[in-house]
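Internal tracking record. Fields below are filled automatically when a chain is submitted to the structure queue. Please do not edit lines marked as system-generated. If the sequence contains nonstandard residues, flag them in the REMARKS field before resubmitting.
Queue: standard
Priority: normal
Entity type: single polypeptide chain
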Amino acid sequence: MERATFGGGCFWCVEAAFEEIDGVESVTSGYAGGHDEDPTYREVCSGTTGHAEVVQLTFDPDAITYEELLEVFFTIHDPTQLNRQGPDVGSQYRSIVLYHDEDQRDLAEDYVEALEEAGGYDDEIVTEIEPLETFHRAEDKHQNYFEKNPNDAYCRMHAQPKIEKVREAFREKVRA
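SYSTEM-GENERATED OUTPUT FOLLOWS
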């Protein structure tokens, strides 16, 4: 098993999308990239800790590759929005890939370069690519949030479209 860590807006939405993918064994919502030693949701949402809302995946590289996970990640969020995704504004919602080793760093940098060369976006990609120093697991109420709250208005408006996008774009990789 390997791990990957991504931030692309509200972790509830990113978590729900990656939960759909075969080969992803677990998805944990949390915080990374900041300076507080034990951040809480409220502190991270204040924008003062430097953390981003992220998800950490445990995945089977024989079932899904890191490159395929990057493709999913860049499909479910807008990597050209600086410090925001949809209605969520602040550095805690920034687009970020937190790599676990040099291979992941190289793959992420190459992926972003290929996206930019392909010209698929009108604006520059602002996704940060940084080493993962510490991952802080979010509070229990934030784990599997969409699954526990499918009728939540925010989830219906923002997580559900990401799930639908994954189901359409990655049919062959969606759990049966």
